[in-house]
Structure formats: C-alpha cells, structure tokens
C-alpha cells in the first residue's frame, strides 16, 4: 500500500501551484519518499524506535544539508533557510528526518504555518482537487502533521455515563458540500458535528423500499456556533445516517480544508470523520440487534406456526443499520482477518501498516479496494464451481469424525443400568452425547467445554487500528489505554460486537448422531438414555410442579407439565419393536422400563408420565402417531383460540426427544415434520445415517428441530445457506453449514480408522452380483406391447415439449414396464407401496379398462380360475378316485402314453384324468393356437388351464392331498430365484434368505409360487410388508431369526416397510428382485444384512432383465451416484435432468 | 412335437387282431396299414390297405388316414378319404394310432349313411341297403382280396 502511494505522489493538493512550477524539487521529493519506507508513519517511529537503533539503520547518513533543505522546501516552499538549517541540525541523525522535521516545524513554528494558510487562498478551488486524482498519502501526511497544531483548541467531548470508552476504528476523509455560506473561512481543525435534521423521517415507504435520500437528513454542523454548514453525498450519508445517534458508534468530525476562504453555497470542503466504536457495543448484555437466543425450552407458540414473515419498522431499521455498518467497515478498509492470527509478532509487525485515513475521493484507493475484492472473489469462486455431492459428503465427513476418534474419551455406561458392551467408538459417541446434554460429570474426560473452538461463521475478527483520530494525535497517551486488546470481533450481519472470540455456542442440548448405517446409533442412544434417564435438575422442582398440575384451578399455569423422567423416542413403525427389544436387551436396571405409545394402549399419557411415581424411562412412538395427534389438535383448534392441548404427546414437555431416521422430517412443510417440530423437550436428538437426502435444505428441518438458533429461523437459513447455494456460492453455503453442524453433528463411517488404525467396524466382505435374465415368452409379448406404447407417448411428449406435463402418465408407462419385468400379473394390481402411482391411480384404472389388447394379452392365462367351491369339489372327486399313494404311481398319460407319469409331473384335470405336466401344456398351447376349446382328451370335458390340480408334494403325511396346480409359466425372475434357492438349500441347508421387492403384490405372488414349489419340510416363508400389524411384524421378525438347520428361511421383505432400520444379520444371502430409482435405497436395504453382527460374507444377487427398462434404470442409478442428487437445488435443472432420465429410459 | 416311438413300438409288439401298421423305413411318421374287413360285414374277408401319416403336431393333431384300397362305403369317398369324427373335430390327444385304426375298422362294421362322404353311395345305401351291401361285397372281392 505504502509503496504504491509513494510512487504515485505527483501532486499535492494543498500546494499544487508550487509543485507544478518546480518539477525539479518534485523529483527530489519523490526520491526521498522512495527511500523512506516508514515515511508515512514517521511521527510514530520517532516515539517507538529507540534512537540508537534508528541510527544504526540510517541508509544515507551523509545527506547534505543542502539536499535536506531542498527537500524541505519542496514540501513547504515558504520555509526560511534559517529554519531549514535549524531543522537539519536537529534531525540530521534521525531516520525520518524529513518527516520529523516537518512535524517539528508545524509544532513549533506556528506563526509560519498561519502564514502559509494565509497564502493559500490563491490556490485553485479544492473542489477540483478533491475529484482529481490527488494523492491521499501525501495530503494525509500533512494533515497528520498539521493536526498537532490544533492541540489546545479542542474541547474534549465528555462520554455519556453509560459509555465507558470509545475506540477508534478508522477515519474517513470526506468531501462535503456547503449548504450555508460562512462569513469567515473555517479554521483548520475546527470541530464539527454531524446531526440528523429530523428525528424520525420516513425514509422507507410501506413496502420497505427507500423512498428518499438519506443525504437530506445528515448535516454537518458547526459545533460552536450551532450552525448548519453542509451536507454529504448520498453515498456517505447512507453509511452514516443509520449509525448516527446510536451511542454505539460515534463520529468526530474535524474541518480539514475549505480552501481557506469563506464558503458559499455549493462549495466543497474537506472533513475528516473519525469513527469510534463505543463500549456499549461490547456490553454483552446489550448486544444490540441480536435475537434472543437463550431459550431454556424450545417451545413454539401456536401463533408462530401460523404467522407469515413481515418485516416490521424496527426490523427495517435494524437492517439499514447493519447495511450501514458493513458499508462503513468497507469504507474504512477495515478488513476481517481471514486466518485467525495467532502469532503476536506478526501482528505487531503488521500493526503499524494498518491504518490510514481513507480518502474516499481518491479513485485509486477505491480501485485498489475493488480489485482486491474481485481478486479474492475470483480465487474463491474458481474452486467453488466444481463442488459436487461427493465434496459435500467429504465435507461433513471431515467436520467431526476423524478427530472425534482421537480426541474423545470413552465413557462406559454403568453395568447397573446397561447390560450391553459398547464398542470403543460407541463409548466415545456416548461421551460426546453426554457433553451435548451438558452432563459433564457423567461423561469421561475433564473437558467441560462442549463447544469446540470454532468461530461463529457470521463473525469476523478485526484488528483494532492504531488510533489515528484527530484527537488522538494531540493526546498521545489516549490511544494506549486499551492496547491490550489487539482484536475485536464483529458480526456485521447482526451488528454484534465482542472482545471474546465468539465461539459458536449452541444452547441446544442434543444434536445429530449421524453415524453411518450399522454403526449402532440405536445402542448409543439407549446407552445415553440409560446413563442419564431423567433430568436431575428438575428433580427438586418436580414436587412443586406436580402440585401445581394437580391443582387444576390455576388458570395462569401455562407451562406444559414436565415429564422430566421420560425420553420420547419417535421411530418409523417398522422399527418400533426393534427399539423396544433392544432396550429390553440392554436395560439392566429394575426401575427403568419402556412403554410403547401406539394404537391407543396408553389412555392417559400425561398422567402416566407426570403423576405416576415411576414413569417409564422411554416412551416409544411412531411418526404416524405424532402426526395424527398433531392434525387432530389443529382441527380442534381451528376456530377457537389456540390453547394448550390437555392430553397426548403435545400436552407434555419431555425430558428428551429422539427421532430415529430423522431425515423423515426433511420436508419442513410436510405434516409429519410440522408435528415433530412442535413436540417439546429439553434435549433433542436426531438419529440419521443420511442427513442430506436430496438437497442442502434437507438439513434445515433438522436444524429447526434442534432449534439451533439463529439458524432455525428460516430467514437466517435462507440468507446464509439457501441463497448463497442457489447463487452457486457453494463455499459460503458449505462453510456456514459446516459451522452449524460442527458442534452438533457426530458422524462416523465404517471405513474410518480408530487410533490403532483399524477400521471401526470390520464387516465380512459383501458381494453384489447382477444377474441378467431374459423375459419369458408371455412376459416378452406384454413387454413389447407396453414398450411401444410408452415410447410413442414419450416421443409425442418430447415433440410437443410438454413431456413433464405428462410426467405421471409416463411414470405409469414406466411402472408397467417395470412390473412386467417382475411378473405379468403385477399389472393392474394397485400397489399401495409404489410411490410412482400414488397420484395416478385413477389414470391407471381408466386406461386399463379401455385397453382391450392388453387385457387379451394378460387374461388368457389368468381368467376363469377356480372358485373355491369348484376347487373343493374337484379335490374331493380326486380323493375318492385315488385313495392310495400306490395308485398315483401307475398312472398313464394318455397323451404321450407314458406310464407311469412322473410323480412330479402329475397333473389332474377336474374330471380326474391324469396327464403329464408337459403334455397338457402342449395341448393347451395347441388348442389355443387353433382357437379350439380345450377338452379332456379322455372324457372331453371342457377344461381350462387355470383349473388344474396336482398332488401336494410337500405333504408330510402319507395321505394324498390335492391342491390347485398353478400352470402359469414362471416369470423369469421367479424361476431364477427358485433355482438359486434350491442350489442354496442343496449346498447348505438352514440358511436365512432375504428377498427384497418394492412391489408388495409381487411379494404376494412370490409367497404363493415359492410355497408351491419349495417343499414345506425344508422351507419356511415369511412375508413382511406395510400391511402387517405391529404385533405381526415383531412375531415374523423374531421367528425369522430363529435358526433351524433343517429349514431354509425366506423373508420376503417390502422395501418401504423394511428398508430401513431392521437388523437382519442372521441372513447372509439376499435377492433384490427389482431395481430402485435411488441407489441409496438399495444400499440401505443391503445394509439390513451387511451390518454389525454379520458373521458371514454377504451375497447379494440383483435380478435385472436384459435389454429392458431395468438395465436403463441401472444406468440412471449410476448417474445419480456420480452427479449426485444434492445438486438439484435448481428447479430448472431438476426438470432438465428428469427429461434426460426419461430420454435415457427410452433411447 | 413328439413322434412317440413308444407308441409305434407297441403297435408292432402288441398288434390289434386284424390290423397291422408298420412304419415306413424312410419316414417313421408314415405307416403302411392293413385292416381286415370285420366279420359279418360286407367287407368280410377283405384286406384293406391304408396309409397313415402322423403330422408334426401329433398327438395334438389327428393323424391323417386314407384308404388305398377301393371300397364301397358311404363314409369313404373315391379317393379313400374317411369321414370319421375322431379324425376331425373329435380328435383327442388321448387317442392313438391303434384306437384310430380300431375306429376305422368299426366304421366298416357299421356304416353311417346319414353322415355321408360319398353321397351316391350313401343314397344307394339308404334306398336299397341290401343292394348296396352286395355291391360292397363285390367290390371287396374285386379289390380287397386276400393275396
């Protein structure tokens, strides 16, 4: 900075004429400037640098007096030779002799100086010079020096009693315009004042837009004569106006130059405005504009949930104030220290270079500032553009994780309350969780500070500039009184200031435990609950509370009763039992127990939790219940005043709330999310393996749930996260997110290494194999038909450009294709679990009604099925005819004349005639081709391929049982699955197998087909989907896990119902019948099996139909993995991507 | 479609009295068939040569059978084609070569002039059954003499 200014010193404002007339001296002057690096701060170095030291570094000790005089005269031409000589003798040994001499001159040769001023009126009007590119540094030099002159003339302004001190932050040199003529020229150094002309002008109109200029309201006053002098330009006024009269920031204005003539209206004159921060700003109790963050309980009033956001007058003022602050800091070139400086030496070095009076009129200074800014901007934006999902992932991996494994001590839960053994990292997690709840005495380690050292990202660190104010120049000790503080911190967005480093403090007790799936979030949470089952702080108060609650007469008692001994755990329905099972397993205390709040089994929750002596430690409930109660409340209170609910979950303050799979609430406008947010508790925990599913904003719900002030206010979040992110300012957004999450989020992944370099969890290997299959004939026919139709629909959509309007239609097309890949019979079933169809059911049924072709293709083999009566009759006929097993072994197929018919291939018609399976199939096929009716070849009874019977080969007893034969050709996937299952059973019996599908009707079909084909002696089939009741779920899961070496256990699992949370480590084989859109869903499903506790290597087989839509889905999955779904912030982009995906499907 | 060797084998090893059927050496689907005229029928003592061809779709489709020997019969035309329901609409895969030939033999025993194929013969048969039977006997002697 200094160098540039030195080199640029061409003109000096005050002495323009003289300089122009003596180019020679100018050169010399320049030379001297170049040689003196600390020239500008000469007056300080005189005081600071010991003389001996100064002498030793004199570069040109033998500069002659003549040169010195020439130099001096070039600066002060009217200086007499005598004085020059005197000064030379005095300062010849000084390092900064020139500046010192000048200083001395102005200090001691007062009269001469006056003379000088008397001469200057002949110089051109300063109005011109202020806008010309005059050099601020040289000018500044003189004003600096001259200031000493005014020493005695100034009144010391008395601070108001509530302001302990004020401290200089910078000075501005400002050009003002005279609004009143003055009688005499204003004296150099005259103290002036800034005043608001009107106390509360209407600057903003009702919409919050500025309607008048602030320049109208800021006036420069002559302090002594209380007389208006002039006004500022709008730019300056906008900075100053909102800050006037606040006591927090004060301005001292000094007349610097008015051309030494009387001012007429419109004349420009130059002022120095010294800016000070007052102690008021730093009084933490009065931290100005910051929202109140000290909530003990995060309770939201009913009104709040309904109120829209309107900017009030006060908020408007606040906003203009903060804008002004930012602009002031900008103008003062007061820059935050980006890397927190810790090296004090470094600081001291830079200290002296830091401050100067900023001359806003100087274009170069401005340019420089601008270019610095834009350079910095470029540097950052360059990196940010390439930020993608993976970086985001890394980003929150880095936040905590690896460090936590080294730093965190381990807390072992007491064996008296917690039976299970925790892993090392889980113990560390427990420490962290305890700290997050401020339970330091229970947590291991001495650390009592839960918050890390992270600075609040909205705050910036600033260094106090050297006091260069006008007043400071005359009272040299003035600036030293606060010198122990080198830095201060400011949040320019809110107008908060502090001396302390603003550590990111979160009042919230709780946080986000975001360990990867399978690392035992459940166990960690249970350990936490067991270790701190109740609020010890509330125990004393509790008695009182109960009494108050009992005396219901007290109307003013607004607070919800405090269930201080209970943690509420909200989980997806499928996990309800798993949680309570885990708790039973872990709980070692006789006094702790859990209650499931589901299906109306607890009649009076409030009573149970607050008025019973030993309330349950944990209440488990589901998202559904919470949402249900909430919507009921909303309905009840629709018209009436919002009063506190009297029963249910919302009538209580819980000690702790844990929401499992917390990403469920990621959509903050969803009913469930709203309901969850409105639950009230002291501690709040979110458990989720995937805090971000689609967008950065997913996090907002979690932040809001945790009430992480101020981020939980949507305005803050929008301003600091969403908007920067949308503007592609990723770094800022992520920085803020990082800062928000850092203290409250703990995430460990399976790959992370502990201190010994071992991975956290060593899981057996898993192998995922894609098995490509071909559709069978009937599937293929239907598939082709549907594909044609889908393609033409997409093509026409693309051609017309309204593809997305028909999105749901296309989704249905796609869905049908996917269904055919699984099984033709899926078409037409309205699978309640299929998200694609949720909104398009009506369309679907309507379309299929009109769809004769499709119906034909489908119906042939699936119509005219047995009624139950027919079936029973046929079975009893058969049983009469064949009473002994031997009979079945000598039957002849009259078609192929084979005798005996192979037992496995034995099929009976209704009439009782036996045939080979194959012969009969052939016959049906032939008759169909010839469009002839099928009749029993023997008795000519009309028969149907759907009315066939066979012997139940799985029958254990010797009795012959006949069952209906299912002749439908097995779909490719079912056939493949059967093959695998049989192979598996042959190679090792008694395995547990999990079969995933997203279509619950497919699970039905699978159940039927598998049970027909696989002998019941060696197979047990379980089905788990959304239709099961809670009780059925738990029975199925516990049965499935029992090992039976004789039986292969097969669990048919619906993705929606069982994709998350379940622990199925007893199985090591899985089959994925159909691909999902989102690869992470598949990963989740696989992780049901591949997780802690898995002993064997895991084999996963994914069935994919060759050359079908499924293969393309795989490609889209791949794409999603690489592009990342988080970047979908932009609606347009999402739209584009969807179209691309559809194109991919049909190309 | 299965050309059932088992059935052929059985035809040879366990022949029906009065009926022979031998597959052709070059084409196992092609059978040379001879049927003895049933006793107490106008065709008694005659031996009738037939050809039988198993189509590709056998046994889903009926075999094709034709008289090579001239015969005077209301249900068999001059070209030797036979009007027999099981060879047409009433075919069932449960029927076999053996049963087909037995049916043909039975047809010789009881002609059905009400469902004729050779109309002139049928007319003759209805008008003058004895005369028609005599003609049939003559034809048998004439064309279907043993050796």
TrEMBL record, chain A:
InterPro entries from the xrefs? Helicase_ATP-bd, Helicase_C-like, HIRAN, P-loop_NTPase, SNF2-like_sf, SNF2/RAD54-like_C, SNF2_N, SNF2_RAD54_helicase_TF
Major place of residence: nucleus
The Helicase ATP-binding domain is annotated at: 502-709
Q: Which Pfam families match?
A: Helicase_C, HIRAN, SNF2-rel_dom, zf-RING_2
Which stretches make up the Helicase C-terminal domain? Answer: 976-1143
Against Gene3D superfamilies, the record matches this protein to: P-loop containing nucleotide triphosphate hydrolases, Tandem AAA-ATPase domain, Zinc/RING finger domain, C3HC4 (zinc finger)
The biological processes this protein is annotated with in GO are:
DNA repair
Residue ranges annotated for the RING-type domain, each copy included? 893-940
- List every stretch annotated Disordered: 115-144
Q: Name one GO molecular function term.
A: zinc ion binding
State the family it belongs to. Answer: Belongs to the SNF2/RAD54 helicase family.
**Mind telling me what this protein is named?**
DNA repair protein RAD5
Q: Which organism is it from?
A: Kazachstania africana (strain ATCC 22294 / BCRC 22015 / CBS 2517 / CECT 1963 / NBRC 1671 / NRRL Y-8276) (Yeast)
Upper classification of the source organism reads: Eukaryota, Fungi, Dikarya, Ascomycota, Saccharomycotina
UniProtKB/TrEMBL annotation, chain B:
SUPFAM superfamilies in the record: UBC-like
UniProt similarity note: Belongs to the ubiquitin-conjugating enzyme family.
- Please provide the record's keywords in A-Z order: ATP-binding, Nucleotide-binding, Transferase, Ubl conjugation pathway
Gene giving rise to this polypeptide? KAFR0A02420
Q: What is this protein called?
A: E2 ubiquitin-conjugating enzyme
Residues annotated as catalytic: 83
Query: PANTHER family of this UniProt entry?
Result: UBIQUITIN-CONJUGATING ENZYME E2
SMART domains (alphabetical): UBCc
């Amino acid at each position: 900075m200094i160098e540039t200014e030195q080199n640029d010193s061409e003109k000096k404002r005050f002495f323009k004429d003289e300089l122009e007339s003596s180019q020679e001296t100018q050169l010399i002057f320049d030379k001297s400037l170049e040689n003196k690096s600390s020239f500008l701060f000469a007056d300080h170095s005189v005081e600071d640098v010991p003389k001996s030291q100064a002498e030793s570094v004199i570069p040109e000790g033998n500069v002659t007096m003549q040169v010195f005089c020439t130099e001096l005269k070039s600066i002060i031409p009217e200086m007499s030779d005598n004085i020059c000589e005197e000064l030379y003798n005095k300062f010849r040994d000084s390092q900064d002799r020139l500046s010192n001499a000048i200083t001395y001159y102005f200090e001691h040769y007062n009269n001469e100086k006056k003379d000088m001023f008397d001469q200057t009126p002949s110089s051109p009007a300063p109005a011109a010079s202020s806008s010309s590119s005059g050099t601020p540094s040289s000018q500044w030099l003189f004003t600096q020096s001259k200031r000493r002159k005014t020493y005695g003339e100034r009144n010391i302004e008395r601070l108001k009693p509530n302001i302990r001190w004020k401290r200089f932050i910078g000075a501005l040199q400002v050009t003002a315009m005279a609004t009143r003529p003055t009688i005499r020229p204003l004296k150099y150094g005259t103290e002036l004042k800034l005043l608001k002309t009107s106390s509360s002008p209407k600057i903003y109109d009702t919409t919050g837009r500025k309607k008048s200029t602030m320049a109208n309201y800021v006036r420069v006053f002559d302090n002594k004569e209380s007389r208006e002098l002039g006004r500022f330009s709008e730019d300056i006024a906008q900075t100053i106006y909102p800050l006037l009269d606040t006591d927090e920031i004060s301005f001292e204005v000094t007349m610097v130059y008015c051309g030494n003539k009387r001012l007429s209206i419109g004349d420009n004159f130059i002022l120095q405005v010294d800016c000070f921060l007052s102690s008021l700003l730093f009084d933490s109790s009065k931290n100005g504009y910051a929202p109140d963050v000290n909530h003990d309980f995060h309770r939201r009033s009913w009104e709040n949930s309904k109120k829209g956001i309107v900017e009030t007058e006060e908020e408007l003022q606040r906003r203009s104030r903060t804008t002004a602050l930012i602009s002031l800091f900008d103008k003062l070139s007061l820059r935050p220290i980006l890397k927190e400086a810790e090296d004090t030496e470094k600081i001291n070095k830079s200290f002296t270079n830091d401050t100067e009076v900023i001359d806003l009129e100087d274009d170069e200074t401005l340019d420089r500032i601008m270019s610095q800014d834009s350079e910095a901007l470029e540097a950052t934006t360059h990196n940010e553009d390439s930020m993608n999902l993976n970086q985001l992932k890394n980003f929150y991996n880095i936040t905590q994780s690896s460090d936590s494994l080294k730093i965190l001590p381990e807390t072992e839960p007491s064996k008296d309350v917690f039976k299970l053994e925790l892993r090392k990292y889980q113990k560390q997690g427990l420490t962290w969780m305890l700290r997050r709840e401020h339970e330091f005495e229970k947590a291991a380690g001495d650390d009592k500070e839960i918050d890390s050292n992270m600075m609040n990202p909205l705050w910036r660190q600033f260094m106090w500039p050297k006091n260069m104010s006008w007043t400071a120049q005359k009272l040299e000790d003035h600036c030293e009184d606060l010198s122990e503080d080198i830095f201060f911190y400011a949040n320019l967005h809110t107008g908060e200031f502090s001396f302390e480093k603003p550590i990111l403090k979160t009042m919230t007790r709780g946080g986000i435990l975001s360990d990867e799936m399978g690392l035992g979030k459940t166990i960690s949470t249970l350990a936490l609950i067991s270790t701190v089952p109740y609020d010890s702080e509330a125990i004393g108060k509790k008695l009182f509370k109960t009494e108050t609650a009992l005396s219901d007469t007290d109307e003013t008692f607004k607070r919800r009763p405090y269930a201080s001994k209970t943690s509420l755990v909200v989980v997806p329905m499928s996990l309800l039992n798993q949680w309570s099972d885990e708790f039973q397993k872990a709980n070692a205390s006789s006094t702790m127990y859990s209650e499931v709040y589901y299906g109306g089994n607890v009649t009076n929750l409030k009573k149970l939790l607050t008025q019973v002596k030993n309330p349950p430690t944990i209440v488990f409930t589901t998202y559904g219940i919470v949402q249900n109660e909430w919507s009921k409340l909303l309905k009840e209170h629709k018209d009436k005043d919002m009063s506190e609910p009297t029963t249910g979950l919302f009538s209580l303050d819980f000690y702790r709330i844990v929401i499992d799979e917390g990403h469920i609430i990621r959509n903050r406008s969803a009913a469930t999310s709203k309901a969850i947010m409105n639950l009230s508790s002291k501690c709040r925990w979110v458990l989720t393996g995937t805090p971000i599913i689609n967008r950065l904003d997913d996090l907002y719900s979690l932040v809001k749930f945790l009430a992480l002030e101020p981020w939980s206010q949507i305005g803050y979040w929008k301003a600091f996260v969403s908007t920067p992110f949308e503007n592609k300012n990723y770094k800022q957004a992520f920085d803020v997110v990082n800062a928000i999450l850092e203290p409250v989020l703990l995430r460990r992944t399976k790959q992370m290494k502990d201190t010994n370099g071992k991975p956290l969890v060593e899981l057996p290997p898993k192998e995922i194999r894609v098995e490509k299959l071909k559709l069978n004939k009937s599937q293929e026919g239907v598939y082709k038909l549907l594909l044609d139709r889908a393609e033409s629909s997409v093509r026409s959509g693309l051609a017309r450009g309204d593809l997305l309007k028909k999105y749901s239609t296309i989704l249905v097309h796609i869905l049908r294709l996917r269904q055919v890949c699984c099984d033709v019979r899926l078409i037409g079933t309205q699978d309640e679990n299929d998200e694609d169809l949720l909104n398009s059911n009506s369309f679907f049924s309507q379309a299929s009604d009109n769809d004769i072709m499709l119906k034909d293709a489908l119906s042939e083999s699936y119509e005219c099925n047995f009624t139950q009566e027919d079936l029973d009759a046929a079975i009893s006929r058969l049983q009469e005819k064949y009473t002994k097993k031997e009979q079945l072994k000598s039957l002849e197929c009259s078609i192929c004349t084979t005798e005996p018919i192979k037992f496995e291939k034995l099929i009976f018609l209704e009439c009782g005639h036996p045939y080979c399976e194959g012969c009969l199939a052939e016959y049906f096929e032939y008759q169909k081709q010839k469009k002839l009716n099928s009749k029993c070849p023997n008795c000519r009874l009309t028969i149907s391929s759907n009315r066939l019977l066979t012997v139940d080969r799985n029958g254990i007893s010797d009795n012959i049982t006949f069952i209906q034969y299912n002749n439908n050709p097995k779909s490719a996937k079912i056939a493949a699955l059967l093959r695998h299952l049989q192979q598996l059973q042959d190679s090792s019996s008694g395995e547990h197998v999990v079969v995933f599908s997203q279509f619950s009707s497919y699970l039905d079909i699978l159940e039927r087909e598998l049970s027909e084909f696989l002998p019941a002696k060696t197979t047990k089939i379980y089905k788990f989907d959304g239709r099961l009741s809670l009780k059925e779920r738990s029975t199925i899961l516990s049965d499935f896990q029992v090992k039976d070496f004789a039986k292969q256990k097969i669990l048919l699992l619906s993705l929606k119902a069982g994709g998350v949370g379940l622990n199925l480590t007893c199985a090591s084989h899985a089959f994925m019948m159909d691909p999902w859109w989102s690869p992470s869903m598949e990963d989740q499903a696989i992780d049901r099996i591949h997780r802690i506790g898995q002993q064997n290597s895991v084999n996963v087989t994914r069935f994919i139909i060759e050359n079908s839509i499924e293969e393309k889905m795989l490609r889209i999955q791949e794409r999603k993995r690489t592009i990342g779904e988080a970047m979908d912030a932009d609606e347009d982009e999402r739209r584009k991507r969807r179209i691309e995906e559809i194109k991919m499907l049909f190309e | 479609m299965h050309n059932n060797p088992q059935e052929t084998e059985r035809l040879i090893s366990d022949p029906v009295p009065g009926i022979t059927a031998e597959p052709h050496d070059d084409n196992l689907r092609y059978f040379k068939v001879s049927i003895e005229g049933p006793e107490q029928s106008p065709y008694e003592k005659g031996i009738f040569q037939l050809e039988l061809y198993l189509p590709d779709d056998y046994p889903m489709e009926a075999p094709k059978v034709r008289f090579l020997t001239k015969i005077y019969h209301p249900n068999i035309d001059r070209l030797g084609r036979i009007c027999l329901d099981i060879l047409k609409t009433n075919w069932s895969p449960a029927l076999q070569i053996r049963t087909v030939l037995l049916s043909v033999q039975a047809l010789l025993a009881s002609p059905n002039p009400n469902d004729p194929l050779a109309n002139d013969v049928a007319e003759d048969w209805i008008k003058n059954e004895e005369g028609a039977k005599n003609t049939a006997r003559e034809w048998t002697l004439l064309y279907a003499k043993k050796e």
